[in-house]
Amino acid sequence: MVLSGSVFAASPVLGALGAGPASVPEAGRRHRLLLLALVVATSVPFWGKAFHIDDPFFIAIAENLKEHPLRPFGGAVALDDTDHRVFTRLGSAPNTFETLSHPPLVPYVIAAVAAVSGGLREVPQHAAFLLFSLAAVWFQYRLARRFTPAPFLPTLLLASSPLFMLGGQSVMTDVPALALFLAGLALFVEGTDSGDARHLLLAGVLAGLAVLTRYVCLGLLPLGVLYALGRRRHTAKAWLALVPFGLVVGLWCFQNLLEHGGVHLVASLRHYGEYYEGRYFTTADLGRRAISDLAALGGTTLPLAVLLAVRLPAGRDLQPVLSALGASALVWLNPLGLHELREYDFPRKAALALFLAAGVFLLAEAVRRSLPLRADRGFLLLWLLAGFFATVVLLPFGSARYVIPVLPPLILLLCGGEEGKAVAPRWTRAARGVGVAVTLSVALGLLVAIADWQYANVYREFARRGVPAVAGDHRVWFIGDWGFRYYMEKAGHRYLLSTDETPTEGDFIVRPQNAALHLMAPGLGARTQRELQVPAMGTLPIRVMSYEAKAGYYSHGWGLLPLAISWAPLESFEVFRVIAPPS
Question: pTM for the whole thing?
Fold first, then answer.
């Protein structure tokens, strides 16, 4: 797989970097086929990956659709322990309508794939979700054709990004939302430029579907308005896109009012205000999320950052470099007083400083290249800065997958130039470096994907083989979420809330170190004794979620690093036996 990455990074890059708009009709089809082939090559080997992180929440809604096809959030499924505690504190009945912050398009896709393929299985789901990755790359190319002199390179940089590669290997909303967002935006831009009503109407439909995937895609609305106001022709026609957009979003809101008596977005925001009470908008919380997101961006695009800083003359501008150095100093000086940093040893602090500096450098370089502001560059810069602001401020924790929407505008700005002045020659002079950077990016993405595959598979294998080995035929309870919860429930074991003291003498309780998001009830804890601890080791020294390694690819709560070099266990399962009946 790494070899195929080298092929894509060599001759196509060297040949495409100098391809200006005049050569697109001849080379465009070949370039797009190469890009789609790269996506397929880095996706197919991972179709057997276990359901992971938040996949099971969307799967639970999909299963709910079997009985309630027009009421996806009926009942109380996909709730975790904190959700239950929030409802108890408020004195209200648990329900999915308030707890799941995402609209239901992805669960509908999962349910449709399951219906066609004869059940909920990993391979058919991942195969179907490949279509979203392909669509994202396809429409990134169309946007790059509009905003850059050579569309192959910015699309290649997205397709080869570890963030994008790993995001496409889940059934979460990240890449589906990105694909629909880029599709809606690309068609809107093309329709506004040409005055084509069909493009505008389809753009509105796709933008509405993007919102039904993730509510943050509502950002398409002000972005589209800004683009339309900046055009001198066909501006009036651009508003046609609002008709299907309003219809799609309006129908969803009407369903909410009809079935639940409220609007889902409002209800879920209210619930999450309670869920994250006291740990959302403090300076330290915002700082953690910003550091985590920037480190995720820099750590996964390090080859590109190094290329820009070393090989391209424009990358040697003093401002981006000083910004990067200033950001790295935050790790060592810790002005926000983050307690996590006090626990990091020198190698982990150095890695975090490097990743953070690379992320800040890329953003600063993109800003520098957008100045002085004009219509196109101003549009792309607003898209970039608004996307990053929303990621840090609106989303509840720092996560590498939350940075995926920032990649397209960032790459377009880095690969574009002054309006009316192509910068392809500068990239052509650095073509060999670009090939190396892309190859390293693909290799890094594959290594991280393999590490994540192994981590996800730990929970599936422990539920299938580990539990019978340690508990025999005894009744088993478990504390833990994500893929661990999915496979444990599938094996017939019971989810244990932090207030539940039901387990009785002879029962077993399993609690993983990473996937357990709460503790057992104090009274129950007094009636248990730990029987053993089962570590699960990996074959690669890369960790994406590990308290010990300080890696928090999916959430900064596990570490501010997106990934870490470590031989720490992938997971460690504590097994307890209940030694006394309830009092």
Answer: 0.92
